[in-house]
Design a protein that fits this description.
This protein has 315 residues and is an alpha/beta fold. The chain has 2 domains: 151 residues, 3-Layer(aba) Sandwich (D-Maltodextrin-Binding Protein, domain 2), CATH 3.40.190; 135 residues, D-Maltodextrin-Binding Protein, domain 2 (3-Layer(aba) Sandwich), CATH 3.40.190. The chain is 41% helix and 21% strand. Strands 1, 2, 3, 4, 5, 6, 7, 8, 9 and 10 form a 10-stranded mixed beta sheet that branches. Helix 6 packs parallel to helix 7 and helix 9 packs across helix 12. The N and C termini lie far apart (55 Å). The N terminus is likely disordered.
Length: 315
């Protein structure tokens, strides 16, 4: 009996040891292969795989934010790069996720800003948000995150879509519309600079419309996923002054049910190796632990919160 007990104990120890050495296999849902999220997600996955023992994270190409959040919710991915506003809609079951609340989401942190850029033709006479009344304005593709950004910002100024001549066009189509005179202005939510606006600035000229002051403060207070930012002078040809703007942020999302120790280790590994992230992708140079805790409206995963509290960037 004693021999059996010893044998059982040895076997249990071997099983436990084997379990400890097994690789943890995870999916990081990203975006299309031609966009930013896919290569950026690949750089994050590489840090996790090389800095954490027995870690195997695969960056998977997807249709971006909305699809990624559904993948996490269904258990088909553990992590995802998403826009923080779309994550807010999914978590709360609003806007494009109306009636489709996904409660098992948590935040690891925000990564870099995607700025809501409001551009108008240089000859339109538009200088402020109020000047958009009655004008031909593209607000992005129908049902897109850009359309919701436009709606929220306009409403912050007391303007509804019925007060403008609304067009639903892609970034490229919006810039072309301003260039050929069929549009007066457009909303584009993207990293700065945006290639469609760069081309417009070179070919026809543009002006950037600011979102600032009390109106910007009120919008940020109402929607916790917005942060205030500045588009620097010279970002686009002919823009000779800084332009205040609002930004959403690319965000690292996680399944809320993933264990705390794993998420802590992954958060720590990422933020202790930002030099490698910056070397692998230009957007990595914009990521900091201090900014990662801003623009968060969906609760942090306990593992991420533990790391941020340790380094003093979260109370």
């Amino acid at each position: 009996m004693k021999k059996l007990s010893v044998a059982a104990a040895v076997l249990a120890g071997l099983i436990a040891l084997t379990g400890c050495n097994e690789k943890k296999n995870y999916i990081l849902a990203t975006g299309g292969t031609s966009g930013t999220y896919y290569p950026f997600g690949g750089a994050i996955a590489n840090i996790w795989n090389t800095k954490i023992d027995n870690m195997n994270v695969t960056a998977q190409a997807t249709g971006a934010s909305a699809e990624n959040l559904r993948l996490i919710s269904k258990g088909d991915a553990e992590f995802a790069t998403v826009q923080n506003d779309v994550m807010d809609y999914a978590y709360n079951g609003t806007d494009m996720f109306e009636g489709q609340k996904l409660p098992n989401l948590a935040s690891i942190g925000t990564l870099y800003p995607e700025v809501v850029q409001i551009a108008a033709s240089a000859s339109s006479g538009i200088k402020s948000i109020d000047d958009l009344r009655g004008k031909r304005v593209s607000v992005g593709d129908a049902g897109s995150g850009v359309e919701f950004n436009a709606k929220q910002i306009l409403e912050g100024y007391g303007i509804s879509f019925s007060d403008i001549k609304k067009n639903n066009l892609s970034f490229k189509e919006s810039a072309e519309g301003i260039q050929n005179g069929t549009l007066d202005a457009c909303f584009i939510t993207a990293g700065v600079p945006n290639s469609a606006l760069q081309e417009l600035a070179f070919t026809a000229g543009l002006i950037l419309i600011p979102v600032n002051g009390d109106k910007a403060d009120a919008i940020c207070a109402k929607y916790g996923f917005y942060t205030k930012t500045v588009i620097p002078a010279g970002t686009y040809k002919g823009t000779d002054r800084d332009t205040e703007a609002l930004a959403i942020k690319a965000t690292l999302a996680v399944n809320a049910n993933l264990d705390e120790n794993t998420v802590y280790a992954m958060t720590k590994a990422l933020f202790e190796n930002l030099d490698e992230l910056g070397a692998a992708h230009a957007k990595g140079k914009e990521v900091t632990a201090e900014s990662a805790v801003t623009g968060i409206s969906v609760p942090f995963h306990p593992g991420a919160a533990k790391y941020y509290k340790e380094i003093g960037v979260l109370n």
